[in-house]
Amino acid sequence: MANKQRRGGSKNAVPSQRSRRQPADPYADAYDEPAGKKAGHSLSKGKSKGKKKTKRAAPLWAKLTLTFGALLMMVAGGAIVGIRSFEGNLTENVSVVDVLGDAGKTDAGPEGNDLTGAIDMLLLGIDVRATQEKNNARADTVLLLHIPATHDQAYLMSIPRDTQVSIPANPKTKYSGGSDKINAAFYFGAQNGGGWAGGLGLTAKTVTKLTGITFDGAAVIDFGGFKKIIDALGSVNVCVEEDSESLHYYHVNGKITYVNEHTAAGRGYKPYVHKKGCREKPGWEALDYSRIRKSLDDGDYGRQRHQQQLIKAMAKKAGSSGVLTDLNKINALMKAVGESMILDTHGVPLIDFMFSLKDLAGADLVLLKTNAGWYNSSGSGGEALSSSTMQMFQAAKNDKLGQFTLLNPEFVNREK
């Protein structure tokens, strides 16, 4: 039986993951630093500017897709205006691939501009460090987005990165298949020329094999891309639950500076602390908080929760800060996302895929906690999903998540 305990920092890295930490800033490229600039550059703390404005809430379909850089449009009075004029820029900046295969829904891509029925999307976040090849990344963030057939709600679920799974064979990259942590599926799919598209494809097949859920679409984004998107938005409101020490930023000569944690320990630098409370954070700070794991009482589950909250905060900001009517911000978002994301719409034209979500006006994003926020040891150095979590995925597959959350309220993340 799986050993159930409150999650702490993960100590069970597989041998191939022992050297994950590198001495250079993992987001050096995302910060657009001059070529050759290494760890130790400084960042000034961002401050919130401007006043809150009361306005009609933007529909969730706009918020979600804008957050992932897939939908860039203008909204007026709840109606779609002028999106066709952005179609050229949209399709030019977002890289669309075709990799879902058996992990895609067999009924996806109906004629016309609408996806009927429930919609399921796979969203992956990868951490490409400055000294790594892009194809050596692992997908440490695995998110499943479920939109019921009624299109009046949306649910976001996470799969822990250490979940022990059976990864299917992938002849294209000469991978014979085997048991490993789920974040390794992206790595094996990206090898031998597979690239990000191959990593996305194999991870999708792995998730489908694990959960039974097939997808209407899938996307992968570099964590550094989140920083760019947040900067294009200006900032996001982040609520810190407890004082949390960063493993990436330290006080050096009076400045907040990126330093590798091992280097910082050797030099006695004082870590930057995210203070409890809610406030606006710039991209580097919001992203750093969402990556913290070791200093949290609930370890990776805390990180999963914070990453979900960051996505929700980005969605909220996209719909409340005038982004949808700001052409400069729209263009900045398209550029930021185009450099950091690939998308598979499973054969549906990108612009039509966007229109398929137009009925989600006024809905909200419900965040769900895998294993109800508790760690289940698989007994083999990884993590196991609880029977209740498997029921949650089955409910998503059968479009019954609303009923599941009513019967299992402990799975709902109600924190800001």
UniProtKB/TrEMBL annotation:
Protein family per UniProt: Belongs to the LytR/CpsA/Psr (LCP) family.
Organism: Catellatospora methionotrophica
Keyword Transmembrane helix annotated: yes
Domain Cell envelope-related transcriptional attenuator: 138-318
Disordered as annotated region, ranges: 1-54
This protein's name: Cell envelope-related transcriptional attenuator domain-containing protein
One family name in Pfam for this protein: LytR_cpsA_psr
Cited Gene3D superfamilies: LCP protein (3.40.630.190)
Bias type Basic residues, positions: 38-54
Keywords in alphabetical order: Membrane, Transmembrane, Transmembrane helix
Stretches that traverse the bilayer: 60-83
Entry superkingdom: Bacteria
Keyword Metal-binding part of the UniProt annotation: no
NCBIfam families in alphabetical order: lytR_cpsA_psr (TIGR00350)
